[in-house]
Amino acid sequence: MAAAGADRRWVWIVVAAAAALPLLRSVVPDIISDYRLFLMSTMMIAAIAVLGLNLLTGFNGQISLGHGAFYAVGAYTAAILMDKLSLPYWTLLPIVAVVCFVVGFLFGLPALRLEGHYLALATFALALAVPQMLKYRWLEDLTGGVQGIVLLKPEAPFGLPLTEDQWLYYYCLIVTVLLFWAAWNLLRGRSGRAMMAIRDHSMAAGTMGIDTARYKTVTFGISAAYTGIAGALSASAIAFVAPDSFGFFLSISLLIGLVVGGVASLPGSIIGGIFTVLVQNSAQALSNFVKNDIGLPYDLSPYSVYGILLLVLMYVMPTGIAGGVVMAWRRLRR
């Protein structure tokens, strides 16, 4: 009990430090710039998306290569509601969560007949199909077709003296804390134990009276809802959605973030979100360093950077960064 209390205390210390970070902008404007705040907002959005995949794959054992599709559904649902119905951004998350939950639940029903790599291939097909469907000419009036939809970034409410990027940071921080808190409560309860029992041994869980079909489909829906909320936040943050932004590489990057951060670990989801954004934003800088400073005639794409880092981390930390940190801490304590 004392250890759990200490862990919660550290969590609230980290959240308080994150909340105070934008206030330091006037003190160190070069370090806490609007661009860096925007970058941290995208990290929190990626962490929510990785958490959604983690609930399905890490805690329930269902492999998905298509969570970029749910991310796209959430982003386009929010964009269409803001663009066509002029709904305020802060009313969208519950609607997006319900829509993506229904989509994930309905996809999870036929997926009950699939396991392992067959389920992975089905979700892979979903990731490939959704961006093409968004370009379909019959949906062009809603989705904007290839051109996408241009939006406005959210402004601070109640006349708060905050820039758009500062308010976006606080908005994403509030949503991230609430969603991780909800996931923590879900996993430590009866439903969470049932999810993990299905992951560890589905047949034994069914023998013990757990309704495996219901838990699998509901977990698919919850996972899709989390990832869809991340997509809705991304639409507000970037103020633009287009089909090509939700290609198959998005699904792969979420899966890599999950593996690198730590499967079946809530802190690992945060680490995975940070890793995903950092690699995407530093791939070009690393490519220039390799080509100009080291002298190798290569241009590193994000795919190459992902592959190299994944190989290194899987060799050094096979349980992910979160698992590696825990193991190192235990060794130091001994």
TrEMBL record:
It holds the Pfam family BPD_transp_2. PANTHER family: HIGH-AFFINITY BRANCHED-CHAIN AMINO ACID TRANSPORT SYSTEM PERMEASE (PTHR30482), HIGH-AFFINITY BRANCHED-CHAIN AMINO ACID TRANSPORT SYSTEM PERMEASE PROTEIN LIVM (PTHR30482:SF20). The chain crosses the membrane at residues 35-56, 63-81, 87-109, 116-134, 167-187, 218-240, 306-329. It comes from Vineibacter terrae. It is found in: Cell membrane. It is a multi-pass membrane protein. Its main location: membrane. GO terms for cellular component: plasma membrane. This is Branched-chain amino acid ABC transporter permease. It comes from the Bacteria. Keywords: Cell membrane, Membrane, Transmembrane, Transmembrane helix. One of its GO terms (molecular function) is branched-chain amino acid transmembrane transporter activity. The keyword Cell membrane applies.
